[in-house]
Specification:
298 residues, six-stranded antiparallel sheet, mainly beta
Length: 298
């Protein structure tokens, strides 16, 4: 989404100059001391955003391979990749497995959040148990501050559809609700991913509650941060000085909510986790700028 108007200059600087310098120490909750040198060695293996105002903008991708190459180049140059509306995702494979430290932060993900502008994404992890180098093993969701709350919905799904008027994308969910993502004046390209050849596609995952609030006094939308456990989230607990939200493999849960006890992981997926759309600012869309391992296998 377009960041809140009050912070438009800050957002513009982030887009021009990159999301983060990847420098600085680590602060916040937990006791992570990065016991091994941090590594940025990973590759993008899947990239499928939900429709949104940055999709197809400034790039042309006709296949998943071309979309992944675009995302890899953007992240390598420290620019954000937008995941669009709810359910849009990116998957990366670390070239060396990330080891479970059983308490410390094991890896981090860079976003472009700042005070008053959090666009939270849920994190999933997977171990390459069949050793084929493909992200086809079981996925485990990382527990966050909103997990288990009545306001958080598991197994939420949205189907996005092309429309004839070319000014909006229609959506319908598995709860009987529907709506549109409208094209705005600043981003006039097609919002439907060009490498999706069908006229509709479905994305599913965990839906976090609406974190937006209209502040009448300031005439602006504010996107509140959740406490911890999400990407592109201005957390006082897991956000490091270098702007990475930090995560623990220890927080991985299976479909029943039980601790996964993964010794290590090979794949990480970030998924846009809110279905929030306001005409003035567009869709709330998680942005990802990079990944880092704090505890890679030797």
């Amino acid at each position: 989404m377009s960041k809140i108007f009050k912070f438009a200059l800050v957002a513009a600087l982030l887009v021009v100059g990159g999301c983060t310098s990847f420098e600085g120490g680590f602060v916040g909750g937990g006791n992570n001391t990065a016991p091994k040198p941090a590594t940025y060695e990973y590759e993008v293996v899947e990239f499928l955003p939900a429709p949104g105002q940055f999709v197809n903008e400034g790039y042309s991708a006709a296949t998943m391979e071309e979309a992944c190459a675009y995302a890899q180049e953007r992240i390598n140059n420290r620019y954000f990749v937008s995941l669009g509306g709810f359910g849009g995702y990116i998957v990366v494979r670390f070239k060396k497995p990330v080891v479970n430290s059983e308490g410390d932060y094991d890896f981090g993900i860079y976003g472009n959040s700042f005070s008053g502008s959090s666009e939270p994404g849920v994190v999933w992890v997977s171990q390459d148990t069949n050793k084929n180098g493909v992200a086809d093993d079981e996925w485990f969701e990382l527990h966050g501050s909103e997990s288990g709350k009545d306001s958080t919905q598991q197994n939420y799904a949205i189907t996005y559809s092309r429309t004839d008027n070319e000014t909006e994308i229609a959506w319908r969910d598995n709860k009987g609700e529907s709506g549109t993502i409208e094209r705005n004046s600043m981003h006039r390209q097609d919002y439907f991913p060009a490498w999706v050849t069908d006229n509709e596609y479905t994305l599913s995952g965990t839906l976090l509650p609406d974190n937006s609030e209209w502040i009448e006094k300031n005439q602006e939308w504010v996107l509140h941060a959740f406490e911890w456990g999400y990407v592109d989230n201005f957390s006082e607990i897991d956000l490091a000085e270098d702007r990475a939200n930090r995560f623990r493999i220890l927080d991985a849960r299976d479909a029943l909510g039980e601790v996964a006890n993964l010794p290590q992981i090979d794949f990480v997926k970030v998924q846009s986790a809110t279905n929030v759309i306001h005409k003035a600012i567009g869709e709330v869309s998680t942005e990802v700028c990079g990944f880092v391992s704090y505890n890679s296998e030797e």
